[in-house]
């Protein structure tokens, strides 16, 4: 099979998994200069066909039809977490690079199989979330590295919601292994904290089970009941490599919606970040000992989901490491495993993995906007 070995001027993209989030990717990916979305695949071929037709993508079929294509360089894996490792490993074995939605896999063991498949094939794995590549978190990273808040001391990260069974048409996977609030929403906050303050070193946590059964609220399957397989409320205290201590709450059992709260306190100032599930938003700074918040202008990329694929393609072409990488995503899985162990055993649990520190992106990096080239 002859196929490009390096991603360069033309980047062939194949999308596997054409459900809810694929619409956003299929809107954004074609905007990235050089990207050519050639095929959509899903176990439900009619769904792949509908997604392809809506987005003007030439080919549609099963996952094997995308993975078997020689004109695909990067497979974008938007399947449910239970299929992330299987679909990703098949794509890697076929010689493609892979960028997958979060979490990297359901467990560290599954993630390690994926990482081994990438090493054996000499191909790369990228993983969501890529929101940290956006203007909001990158501006915060530049401020923290520049010393604006002084020495980081504390962080508070909070996602509270009654649960995605209220809006997702097929929410079962969000209450199964590889999800729950901790692994569905936690990756946005845990990835941001890791990039901004260094890896998590130690965890103390408590988890709580919510209702054993939930009901699909919206869409054609409304009224369908399903079993909940994972804890749905997590409180965890995290010690970060910088020495800062983060207090976190991730919940699908909250009557109150509080999305996107992320605040970092330093010896000189407090920084309130935009929602880490978004690529930009209000960034505010308050000097120590005052209540005088001021808005900080953000600079950087705002395209949305798909930025991680753009950065991966640039990194492959430049032969340098990419940012939304498997080490970072596997670290989030390690934190989740430590949370579960700490909750079960009522003790502190160390986290060993140590993803490399990341340099802030150039504020001018904005693929897919104003004709700026992706690389
Ligand atoms: N829905 C969102 O708002 C959202 C936002 C950010 C990230 N995500 C992530 O994106 C991923 C997908 O979420 P979703 O909400 O789009 O789910 P979804 O259930 O709406 O869609 C998943 C699709 O994957 C297909 N699929 C499952 N197994 C497959 C396999 N082995 N091969 C090929 N296709 C397969 C399903 O048929 C379905 O069409 C998840 O990892 C989720 O965490 C979702």
Automatic annotation (TrEMBL):
<protein>
    <submittedName>
        <fullName>Gfo/Idh/MocA family oxidoreductase</fullName>
    </submittedName>
</protein>
<dbReference type="InterPro" id="IPR000683">
    <property type="entry name" value="Gfo/Idh/MocA-like_OxRdtase_N"/>
</dbReference>
<dbReference type="GO" id="GO:0016491">
    <property type="term" value="F:oxidoreductase activity"/>
</dbReference>
<dbReference type="InterPro" id="IPR055170">
    <property type="entry name" value="GFO_IDH_MocA-like_dom"/>
</dbReference>
<feature type="domain" description="GFO/IDH/MocA-like oxidoreductase">
    <location>
        <begin position="137"/>
        <end position="272"/>
    </location>
</feature>
<dbReference type="GO" id="GO:0000166">
    <property type="term" value="F:nucleotide binding"/>
</dbReference>
<dbReference type="InterPro" id="IPR036291">
    <property type="entry name" value="NAD(P)-bd_dom_sf"/>
</dbReference>
<dbReference type="InterPro" id="IPR050463">
    <property type="entry name" value="Gfo/Idh/MocA_oxidrdct_glycsds"/>
</dbReference>
<feature type="region of interest" description="Disordered">
    <location>
        <begin position="350"/>
        <end position="375"/>
    </location>
</feature>
<keyword id="KW-0560">Oxidoreductase</keyword>
<feature type="domain" description="Gfo/Idh/MocA-like oxidoreductase N-terminal">
    <location>
        <begin position="12"/>
        <end position="125"/>
    </location>
</feature>
<dbReference type="Pfam" id="PF22725">
    <property type="entry name" value="GFO_IDH_MocA_C3"/>
</dbReference>
<dbReference type="Pfam" id="PF01408">
    <property type="entry name" value="GFO_IDH_MocA"/>
</dbReference>
